[in-house]
Amino acid sequence: MIIFETMKVFLLNIVFLLLAVGVFSQIDEIDNYEFLINESATGHYISNDFFYKWDTLYVRTSRNHPLNLADTQIICLRSPEYSKFQLPVRGKVISEFGWRGRRIHTGIDIKLNKGDSVFCSFDGIVRISRYLSGYGNTVVVRHFNGIETLYAHLSKRLVDVNDTVKAGQVIGLGGRTGRATTDHLHFEARFKEQPFNPRLIIDFDNYTFKNDTLLLTSETFKLDRKRSYNVKTFTHNGEKIHIVQKGDTLYSIARKHNITVEKLCAANNISENKILKIGEKIIIPQSF
Ligand SMILES: [Zn+2]
User: Cα of 186 to ligand 1 centre, how many Å?
Assistant: First the structure.
C-alpha cells in the first residue's frame, strides 16, 4: 500500500513537471510578443503557431515556411480592445492584387501624392522599417491577430522597428521609392508570411473593415489566373454559416446546431445580448 502511494505521488510529480515544462517552453518561445499573447488570451485567436520569427530585416523570414491551413482559421479583425481601423490612404485603387502579366502583384496600389500621410490600418507593432529593393522605403506592422500589413514606396518612414503603433497613426509619407513609376502606396496584407488580397479585410470603396472576422483557408492564398483578384474564392469552407432569419435568436441558432450559446458567441466575437439582424451571417463553430 505504501509503495502504491509513493508511486502515485511520484507519477503526479512527473505530470506537474511536464505541465510546467510545457507552459514555460511556450512562454519562452513567444517571449517578445507579450502584446500578442495578451490578445490571444482573450480566446479569439487561440493558436500560437503563427508566432513565426520576429525578423526585422526581411518581409519573408523563411522561403520554405509551411503554410499549414488544413483547417479553417478564424481571424478576429475587430475585438472590443482592438476595434479601431483606418484606411492607409484614401485614394483610387490603381492596381489590384493578383496576376499582373507573368508576375504576381502581392498587394494593392493606391494613388496618392508625394508627402501624403500614410496611416497604419490597425493597432500593432512595427516589425520592419527600412529600405528594401523593389519596395523602397517600407514599413511592416504585425497586428494582434497575426496578420501583417505592409506599406511600400514611402518617401519617408516615421516609425522604427519595435514601435507600438495605433490604428490611424501616421507611419510614413507617400512617395515612389523603389520600383514605382508613379507616386502611390503599395499595400499588402499577409498571414504567416503569405500575401492575400487586402480586399478580404478592407473595403477600399467604403473605407471600412470588410468584416469582424476573416476565415482563412488554403483557398485564400490560391491565385486564379483568370481573375484579377480572388475575393470570391474566399468562401466559408469547412465552416457552417447561418444566415439570420426572422425570429432567430442566438439561443435558437445554438440549439439548432447543437452547440452552446457561449461557443457561438466566442466564434463570432459577440455578446449574448447582441440583437441579430435579418440576413446577418453567423459562424457556426465545428469542433471547439
Ligand atoms: Zn504594388
Answer: 4
